[in-house]
Design a protein that fits this description.
single chain; alpha/beta; Isopropylmalate Dehydrogenase; ten-stranded mixed sheet; two-stranded antiparallel ribbon; 12 helices; 14 strands; 40% helix; binds nicotinamide-adenine-dinucleotide
């Protein structure tokens, strides 16, 4: 049996409330007689700025680099809106992504049956939905040079951003997608705009070459990004794993997220390069922010953060069976009608953050008894 070290960064707003429920799940797992986890908790975001004038300290970055995985709550809030960009709460998150070189962002869009009616699409289109979007996270137009706004001197200004990808960046994120597909439905859809962008043409050619070299057992399709946006809201269940660049991934993952209902249900993972032992640096966090409007009131839905920990079990610790059990416990709780305010529906029972944690733990007990 292995022992793993987790760095917990609850952050601001509802972050500590939702992380508290993850800690209870970790304690439960530690009693099950399998792999165990030690945890250390530290500061990121506004609370880190308050403590030492930076959104994340060097010492915390060192702990993140040494940990087997990092689990983050959320950062930010109106209290820190006026401070400089380099020390804002979000800067802590960006530094973590950069220093851990987390180039692949995994956003699952899974529709729990009990919540199928909360989607903006018809139940039959989203029931059973299970898509994985793999977004390239450290390259492309958000980082490419040249960039900036220049004054043209004639009353006009020019804004420039550069979309740029090298083969190694395309291949490493595509590998993540192909490897994931092999453990799921064995299908990858690669998304770009090769019809109008050279970087899209390179993306398409590099993914195709990698596929025929190393992944010919996986079914590969290519789709233009604009068509993909349309297909996601038309027949989302046609997809298994989608892989795309930073910009298109940013938009398409938000579109896919809304198919499944609430922000409080959406987990994510960001992965780095695999080392010689196949181990990757990894950060797991809910998609939602710090929700200052409900912070401290026991209203936050902890499921997105619990599902993010479930992704850590699956992708960092090869504990898929335990992750499946957590998914099943959540499905059972939702089917029983217990709901936090964000996913409340007529006839259901309103529960607090802690009561949702209680209910999931009871289901886990029931599933293992
Ligand atoms: P938000 O995600 O915090 O909240 C949007 C809405 O969804 C709010 O009404 C909120 O109450 C609700 N909500 C979010 N998570 C919920 C949960 N778990 N349970 C129940 N309801 C939930 O986005 P925002 O309001 O635009 O941003 C608030 C702060 O969070 C800002 O400072 C923003 O910069 C920051 N933010 C941080 C992250 C991050 O840490 N990764 C992501 C997005 C926004």
């Amino acid at each position: 049996m292995a022992q793993y070290n987790l760095l917990l960064l609850p952050g601001d707003g509802i972050g500590p409330e939702v992380m508290g429920q993850v800690e209870r799940i970790i304690a439960w797992l530690n009693k099950q007689g399998g792999n165990t986890f030690t945890t250390e908790t530290d500061l990121v975001g506004g609370c880190a700025y308050d403590a030492h004038g930076q959104a994340i300290s060097d010492a915390t970055i060192d702990k993140a680099l040494a940990a087997d995985a990092v689990i983050l709550g959320a950062v930010g809030g109106p209290k820190w809106d006026g401070i400089g960009y380099d020390v804002r709460p979000e800067a802590g998150l960006l530094r973590l992504r950069k220093d851990l070189q987390l180039f692949a962002n995994l956003r699952p869009a899974v529709c729990f049956d009990a919540l199928a009616d909360a989607s903006s699409l018809k139940r039959e289109l989203v029931e059973g939905l299970d898509i994985m979007i793999v977004r390239e996270l450290t390259g492309g137009v958000y980082f490419g040079e040249p960039r900036g706004i220049t004054d043209l001197g004639n009353g006009q200004r020019r804004g420039v951003n550069t979309q740029v990808y090298d083969t190694f960046e395309i291949e490493r994120v595509a590998r993540v997608a192909f490897d994931l597909a092999r453990k799921r439905g064995n299908r990858v859809t690669s998304v770009e705009k090769r019809n109008v962008m050279e970087s899209g043409l390179l993306w398409n050619e590099d993914v195709t070459a990698l596929h025929s070299r190393d992944y010919s057992d996986v079914t590969l399709d290519h789709m233009l990004a604009d068509n993909c946006g349309m297909q996601l809201v038309r027949t989302p269940k046609q997809f298994d794993v989608l892989v795309t660049d930073n910009l298109f991934g940013d938009m398409l993952s938000d579109v896919a997220a809304m198919l499944t209902g609430s922000l409080g249900m959406l987990p994510s993972a960001s992965l780095g390069e695999a080392d010689r032992d196949g181990k990757r640096k990894a950060l797991y966090e809910p998609v939602h922010g710090s929700a200052p409007d409900i912070a401290g009131q026991g209203l936050a839905n902890p499921i997105a953060t619990i599902l993010s920990f479930g992704m850590a079990l699956r992708y960092s610790f090869d504990m898929g069976a335990q992750a499946d059990m957590i998914d099943q416990a959540i499905e059972n709780v939702l089917t029983s009608g217990k709901r936090t305010a964000d996913i409340m529906q007529d006839g259901m029972t309103a529960v607090s953050t802690t009561e949702m944690g209680d209910a999931i733990l009871s289901e886990l007990d029931a599933l293992t008894s």
